[in-house]
Design a protein that fits this description.
The complex is a heterodimer of chains A (330) and B (524).
Chain A: H1 2-28, H2 33-37, H3 44-54, H4 60-72, H5 86-121, H6 126-140, H7 143-157, E1 170-173, E2 176-178, H8 183-215, H9 219-227, H10 231-269, H11 274-284, H12 287-315, H13 317-329
Antiparallel strand pairs in A: 1-2
Helix pairs in contact in A: 1-12, 5-6, 5-8, 5-10, 6-8, 7-8, 7-10, 8-10, 10-11, 10-12, 11-12
Chain B: H1 2-18, E1 27-32, H2 47-56, E2 61-63, E3 69-71, E4 74-81, E5 84-89, H3 103-114, H4 121-124, E6 127-134, E7 137-142, H5 149-153, H6 161-166, E8 193-199, E9 203-208, E10 224-229, H7 233-241, E11 247-248, H8 256-261, E12 265-280, H9 301-310, H10 313-320, E13 325-327, H11 341-344, H12 352-361, E14 368-375, H13 382-395, E15 398-405, H14 407-415, E16 421-427, H15 433-440, H16 455-466, H17 470-486, E17 491-503, E18 506-507, E19 522-523
Parallel strand pairs in B: 1-10, 1-11, 14-15
Antiparallel strand pairs in B: 2-3, 4-5, 5-7, 6-7, 8-9, 9-10, 11-17, 12-16, 12-17, 13-17, 18-19
Classes of the chains: A mainly alpha (330), B alpha+beta (524).
Chain lengths: 330, 524
């Protein structure tokens, strides 16, 4: 168990290093940040002088080592576009994305699991079929189309909800600003979180449904039925518990996807989060922000995967048993 | 218990839906695509940033919405001798923090804008020395005669010496310091609005400056301005349609009809000071992306004229620009000093047969291949114009390979002289033809990606920089326009037309440089 944990942690380090290197190399060849920092008329000499000042003419290896040393201290330099230190900008945007992702995950689970159970238990009702067909929209319609449709319906036509922004925010602890403590914040988060949760909702719904159908075919369920347990006891007491284990795993891994897809949702709704910051950095060739964002997202993925792997090891007794047996026979 | 929960839920829902803020003051909410980069007025020479600075800061000379120069912080100016300009400054002006405006601040600003760290150096670099005669009189000494100093000064925003010293921002943003400069999110100017809150990418709030000197002659009634950048075009239009914003600077062309159809909204449009054109490399011996080896087809003016004739600008005007463009034959629009109206009206009619004949005469009866570099996020429908052009040039057997990229990747190709055939749009900050010549036509012009080099044009361009006799200078400008139009150095397309979408309650004159100045706005 310990060896497993240590080896996974070391692998994570290696992944992080490679990611940092790849991002860094890639972005040195994308666009010319000098062009975005100066106006139309700056002379060639002035541009060269700025390149020197920013250290953009040093050899790549030197720039990368400088970058690693600073990154280890949390210092990613100054954003070319915002002219502020990156380590000040990121904490400002992080809460927005985290709250959006959290709201979407909660929505996806809160709607996905019940729908999945219902469609698993009642396969042939029209409601089941309607839910399944409707869920297709969740995976086939692109996120930005769903977002624009919702804006058109709820903001322009009905005038009920705001079409952009995060509403009023409140400083909660330190640098964390929350939009969940104000009325306008709640109004603002509804549409983006619906947009973002749809594909995850569909995924959870179908996994729960498939798992329910499979579990209901197993022997121990047949035996429980033979013993005379009520439907309710069978479905929710036994079947559901076994269904949920893979769902939790998948959901955990999907959180990474939510963060990735949030880029599009945030752009549509002008949600001031990390994803939106990243897109603007790409347009502007704002290398410090792009690199910081990718390194951070890689970190999230690596940590989540690490936790899920370790949890799996802990939760599923079969994995533990196999290792002990082979160790004993070896 | 259940009934109580139900009641609370209903109340909560109603609260959500019905909560609307009460408005006792005139609040103007507006949006556009780009956020200003900084509130330091000497830091970033680009449109949204300058637009933001003009609400809060002022220059010695200002341009009104007819683009005429008018007295601003300087009430009058006089040329004492060819290298000395004397400015009489306005009395009774205070900065937002209460300190009075004097000649000291002008001298300080000139120094700050002239520093290496300032992006506005080009507007002030001819000034080598300032002489303060008294608190309200200052002389600017130039290195050589500069006939257009007053035009250039419209972009030099005056900052308070005391405020800059107090907050350690005596230099415009320097990237060497790893800290954020105080001036990025704070401002202290003399303008009609004061900066109250600046959250980059989220919102910016300006409030009325009750002590503004210009309030008597410009009695605007805007108490507060809330600006939100909205990058996504559809969301921006939705915000205007739903009434969440009152003014949109850049509604997409295809949504203008929808905005007009809304009973509460209106669209205003005007010709912009920006012309879109194609640049063609006529300096290289061989083109990089062509199948013609050993020679450069673009060097032959007949080829350039053929391409010009092969572009059906009326079709582009109607279908691509939806009527929002003014077909052109010169690279600069009306409103710029020296604009040759007669030459602009002489665009040869669309004639693909004649173009093909010209090409054959030049020695390319089978046409040739070439790549066209195009931006896709800078000008109105830039990529679509290029796509239309590809089709049109294909009809005369010039097979064009379109490369459309964001401006970050596109513009370095032009300044780095790495492109055969490219699209560019040029605004004219000083509203003088010299601005066009010096950047785009002078052999050493930083944006002369066509590598055009004509010693006579170079000579004229440099001579007009220092010619104080305005009649003589105008003759030089005219001659230059005649030369480059005759030689078809660039292929002009059209002058852009800009449209603003706004609530009918808002009255504002339109500015051809696409920079709204809210000092002239009124809300009904």
């Amino acid at each position: 168990m310990i060896f497993y944990a240590i080896s996974r942690v070391l692998q994570s380090f290696a992944v992080m290093l490679v990611t940092a290197f790849v991002c860094f190399i890639l972005f040195n060849y994308v666009g010319d940040p000098i062009n975005n920092m100066v106006g139309q008329e700056t002379t060639i000499q002035d541009r060269e002088a700025l390149r020197e000042r920013l250290g953009l003419n040093d050899p790549t290896a030197v720039q990368f080592l400088r970058f690693l040393r600073n990154a280890a201290q949390g210092d990613f330099g100054i954003s070319y576009r915002l002219q502020r230190p990156v380590k000040d900008v990121i904490p400002e945007r992080l809460p927005a994305t985290m709250e959006l992702v959290f709201a979407s995950a909660v929505l996806a689970l809160a709607l996905g699991i019940p729908f999945g159970i219902y469609t698993g238990l009642n396969r042939d009702t029209w409601l089941s079929r309607a839910i399944l067909t409707g869920s297709l929209a969740g995976v086939s319609l692109p996120t930005f189309v769903i977002g624009i449709l919702l804006i058109y319906l709820f903001s322009v036509t009905l005038g009920l909800l705001p079409s952009f922004g995060r509403g009023e925010t409140v400083q909660v602890i330190g640098w964390w600003t929350s939009g969940l403590l104000t009325v306008s914040g709640w109004k603002s988060i509804i549409l983006p979180s619906i947009t973002l949760c749809l594909f995850q909702l569909t995924l959870i719904l179908r996994i729960v449904r498939a798992e329910m159908l499979e579990v209901l075919m197993t022997d121990y369920i047949k035996f429980a039925r033979a013993r005379g347990l009520t439907d309710r006891a069978i479905n929710f007491g036994h079947a559901l518990k076994n269904t949920l284990v893979p769902v939790i795993t998948v959901t955990g891994l999907q959180v990474g996807s939510l963060i990735a897809f949030s880029i599009i949702t945030e752009t549509v709704f002008q949600w001031p989060g990390m994803g939106f910051l990243f897109i603007q950095a790409v347009h502007f060739a704002d290398i410090p922000i792009m690199v910081a964002y990718l390194v951070m997202v890689a970190l999230f993925f690596v940590i989540i995967n690490l936790i899920v792997d370790l949890l799996y090891f802990v939760v599923d007794p079969r994995l533990r048993m196999d290792r002990v047996e082979t160790a004993g026979q070896g | 218990m259940k009934r109580n929960i139900l009641k609370i839920a209903i109340v909560f829902f109603l609260m959500l839906v019905l909560a609307t803020p009460a408005m006792a003051e005139n609040v103007l909410r507006w949006a556009s695509q780009g956020d200003p980069l900084t509130y330091d007025p000497h830091s970033a020479n680009e449109s949204p940033t300058i637009g933001a600075s003009t609400q809060v800061y002022e220059a010695l000379v200002n341009r009104n919405w007819k683009l005429e120069k008018e007295a601003s912080l300087a009430v009058s100016w006089e040329i004492i001798n060819p290298t000395t300009w004397e400015f009489k400054l306005r009395k009774g002006v205070t900065f937002h923090d209460g300190t009075p405006f004097t000649a000291e601040d002008v001298a300080f600003t000139v120094k700050r804008a002239n520093a290496e760290t300032s992006e506005f150096r080009n507007y002030i670099k001819s000034v080598v020395e300032t002489k303060i005669l008294d608190d309200y009189t200052i002389q600017l000494i130039t290195s050589g005669p500069n006939p257009i100093l007053a035009d250039q000064l419209t972009y030099v925003f005056i900052m308070s010496k005391k405020w800059c010293e107090k907050h350690g921002v005596t230099e415009a943003t320097s990237f060497k310091d790893q800290e954020e400069s105080y001036a990025v999110r704070h401002a202290n100017g003399t303008g009609p609005f004061m900066l109250e809150l600046r959250e980059p990418d989220i919102k910016t709030i300006l409030v009325k400056n009750p002590n503004w000197w210009g309030l008597k002659q410009n009695p605007h009634n805007i108490d507060k301005i809330i600006y939100t950048p909205i990058a996504n075009a559809a969301t921006r239009v939705a915000a205007l349609l739903s009434g969440e914003v009152d003014f949109l600077l850049d509604p997409p062309l295809q949504d203008l009809e929808r905005i007009k159809a809304n009973p509460n909204l209106k669209v205003q449009q005007t010709a912009q000071i920006r012309t879109i054109f194609y640049g063609i490399d006529q300096g290289s011996a061989e083109l990089r992306s062509s199948n013609i080896k050993g020679k450069n087809p673009f060097k032959d003016p007949r080829v350039r004229k053929a391409m010009h004739m092969a572009i059906d600008i009326k079709a582009i005007h109607k279908k691509v620009m939806r009527g929002m463009s003014i077909p052109a034959n010169v690279m600069t629009p009306p409103g710029v000093h020296g604009y040759p109206k007669d030459l602009d009206e002489q665009r040869p009619p669309y004639d693909p047969e004649k173009a093909k004949a010209l090409l054959a005469e030049a020695g390319y009866p089978d046409g040739f291949e070439v790549s066209l570099d195009c931006p896709n996020n800078r000008y109105n429908n830039d990529e679509r114009i290029c796509q239309a052009t590809v089709g049109m040039l294909g009809k005369i057997d010039i097979k064009v390979n379109l490369v459309a990229q964001p401006k970050t990747l596109h513009f370095p190709k032009i300044t780095g002289r790495k492109t055969d055939f490219y699209m560019l749009g040029w605004g004219v900050a000083t509203l003088d033809s010299h601005y066009v010549f010096t950047y785009l036509l002078d052999s050493e012009g930083p944006w002369n990606g066509s590598m055009y080099s004509n010693p006579r044009v170079d000579e004229l361009t440099r001579a007009m920089e220092v010619e104080m006799d305005l009649a003589k200078r105008d003759k030089m400008i005219r001659e230059t326009w005649e030369i480059i139009t005759e030689e078809q150095v660039y292929i002009p397309l059209h002058h852009q037309v800009i449209a603003w979408g706004m609530n009918k309650r808002l009255e504002m004159p339109m500015e051809p440089n696409d920079q709204p100045q809210f000092r002239w706005a009124r809300m009904k």
